[in-house]
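User: Show me an example of a complex going from sequences to structure tokens.

Assistant: Sure. Here are the input components:
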Amino acid sequence: MSYLDELNDSQRQAVQHTQGPSMVIAGAGSGKTRVLTYRIAHLVKTGVDPFTILALTFTNKAAKEMKGRIASVVGYGEARNIWMGTFHSVFARILRSEASKLGYPSNFTIYDTQDSKSLLKSVIKEMGLDEKIYKPGVVYSRISSAKNNLISPREYMSNQDVMISDEASGKPRLGEVYMNYADRCFKAGAMDFDDLLFKTNVLFRDHPQALHAYQHKFKYLLVDEYQDTNYAQYLIVRKLAAVHENLCVVGDDAQSIYSFRGANIQNILNFKRDYPDYVLFKLEQNYRSTQTIVEAANSIISKNKDQIKKKVWTDNAQGESIELLRANTDNEEGRMVAQNIFETKMREQLKESQFAILYRTNAQSRSMEEALRKMNIPYKIFGGLSFYQRKEIKDLLAYFRLICNPKDEEALKRVINYPTRGIGQTTIDKIVLTARERGTSLWEVILDPIQSALQVNKGTASKIKEFVTFIERFHHSLGITGSYDMAYEVAQTTGILKDLYNDKSPEGVARYENIQELLNGVKDFSEQRRADGGDDRLDEFLMDVALLTDADETDENEDYVSLMTIHAAKGLEFPYVYIVGLEENLFPSQLSLSSRTDLEEERRLFYVAMTRAERRATISMANTRYRWGNLTYCEPSRFIDEIDKAYVKFPPNWNGQVSDMSDLGFGGGMEGWSSFNRQSGGAGSEGLNFVKKQDTAPVRIPIHVPRNFKKLNNTNDNGDYGPVEEVEVGMDVEHPRFGKGKVVKLEGGSPDTKATIFFPGSGKKVLLLKFAKLKVLPSTA
DNA sequence: TGCCCGGGTGTTTTT
DNA sequence: CACCCGGGCA
């Protein structure tokens, strides 16, 4: 039982108390993950069948890591059978097997936010409503929060308060939009993110025998990050745990940062009410951070009124002060941070992967990126547009989706005329209209246009027929053809592959590479499935794709500085953390200033950011910042003031608060920087000249690991065709497709550096370095 | 039907 | 500033 020796007293108690309801309040860095993993391992060790354990985590990555750690204690064979994953992925899986009870096909599509908004847009249009008033995004969040609170369209429309507030906001027909949207999703055999939780509740409410089965199946339940569960999630947990009541929830009220998506901190506070005989464990010793960081974080969070009393402490060394960097501009802020990272790295002989830059909004990544790029520091951005959201990927995936579920309306609209096959908007509108009149899916209309009385001319009709036959052919061979073979054939026969291949613009090359990457992902999946003896079907591949996120794919073999929002950093830790943009109206966000609870959530966010740091935390701000195009002046964030001064190292000119407007000049040795960065990507001559100067030095490309994806199959771990770090004019290189060639020209700033390469076999090609999988060959000279 | 251009608009945070 | 959308034109 050696693993028990690795725990402190309270951790061990939490691990060993397996029967009955319990709650673990785990301060930041207190070994929460360790408790969770050992608790599960302990269950298995003491004879509990892994199939009866359900562990709900906050990210897929957390589940994967935890599984790996459990496997090292109890072995892979046992660990793999534990039900573990995010709420969304676990219940998507359950919903698939119970789909027929809800009238859904088991291979229902999961709509991502883009799909949902696009569908909402057409619903709104078809209802003749003004898109300026019924903005899809706003409508989406309204519907989302309705679902998260388990309010069905019917209940929505019969709820007086809701109707009154919608009327007050000028959107009296929002309920109808909700109803039509839900109807269309259903007809398309699709669920959106929120449906995965909503429909699970419907399943458990309307099918007691199903609930009963799962209640008995899952004898042990664990929920991580319980403070961030919403009502729909709360109810699922409560129902599932009702029979055995072996429920262990783990969380930290001080780290509740997701109220905007319905997370309810009350869930933690109500635990006592729901399970009066629960046992409470508090983990208060922090093992992660220095004394300075822990105390500074405590001083911040103590400003919040709403909190469960606890005292996080540490035995760790005092450590370095929290340094405040103050810059004149956002770009200078980036430069100061990059410089600081560089110096620290050199001084302490560290790896890039030991650093993280955290920010409040995604938009802030830009100035950081530019600075890092200039200093040749490799970085990776998490979040933002993920791999699966790129147009070319969504297009090909839409084919896959349509083949697996032909009723998928959004997929059909996406590809019916891509690549162009002469079925234009007019025709699509007619199809949609006909489908609506007949109350069926678009697919059913085009499957039998005559029966549906679809009014199109002969030419169009035959083109539609051709398209239908094409999709049907693949649909019918789903059980026969393997996932990769089918995926490849689709990419091939639709002409997508060829189109992108022929597009030799850097963007085209990038898109081609992305498609290759997707195909390689399918190949990985296919091989994995065959090795495991499972079903190698394209619809199986598709199942979880919509639920994968950026954070799920990190590559430990690569070395880079991590850039992400604070939200995305939750649960992670880094030796050196930079929290940037500490300015009023940015952090805390201007949208939070009107209410105390919102402001307190911002403060918890700052607490989360600070407690990610192990050895040193650095904070920064800029006096001016470009915000949607124009220069704005910034005040230091109130949060700076809230850190106990004993732990902060202020800049020499720090006057306490309001920025001194007289020192806002761009001088002081910063020439070039602000003006260049401002015009980055544009045609500003000054900026371009500046880049050219850099070109004389070897261009080192930040390692941009394709998001979410494993390494390509055609690039192996030995570095063949790996992303190239340094390319110079005159170098001999090898390209996976074009073969050997010579670099003749480099242009543009990293990471968009384009290389002109002469390939004896295929002529001159202009390639984007970050995407071209080049291998540098030994010099022939 | 498809491409290009200009105007309007928008920023929290994510499964 | 950057993206999306709609209108105008080939």
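The lines above are the inputs; the final block is the predicted structure for all three components together. The radius of gyration of chain A is 28 Å.
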